[in-house]
Amino acid sequence: MGAYHVFSDGILEYSGLHRQFLIERLAPFTLYTPTLEACTAAGCAHSEPQPLWTEEALPTPPPQTLSWLLPSSLWSPPL
After folding, report:
1. 6 and which of 14, 38, 65, 69 could share a cystine (Cβ 3.0–4.6 Å)?
2. From CA 63, how far away is CA 18, in angstroms rounded?
């Protein structure tokens, strides 16, 4: 029985027996370079880094309300 190890930018993201897994905490529009290490009783083999870009984030919605602060001045008639 073998094991799989997935590294993203040198950080271990997954270690186990499953061939599918989920990497969390990804940032939008960011380049990641994951590598796979597959191990058996005979040893381990490494993949080349695979450059992957995450999708861009959705635009933020416009503000629901706007408030304006207008300058004010006080005027008094001359004495």
Report:
1. 14
2. 44
Residue 44's domain spans which residues? 1-7+31-56
What span, in angstroms and rounded, lies between the C-alpha atoms of 4 and 72? 68
Sheet holding 3-8, edge to edge: 11-16, 3-8, 34-40, 43-46
Instruction: Please classify residue 67 by burial: count the beta carbons closer than 10 Å to its beta carbon, then call 0-12 exposed, 13-18 middle and 19+ buried.
Output: exposed
State how many domains the chain has. 1
- The pLDDT tens digits for 50-67 are 999 999 988 888 777 766
CB contact set of 52 (below 8 Å; sequence gap of 6+)? 31, 32, 33, 34
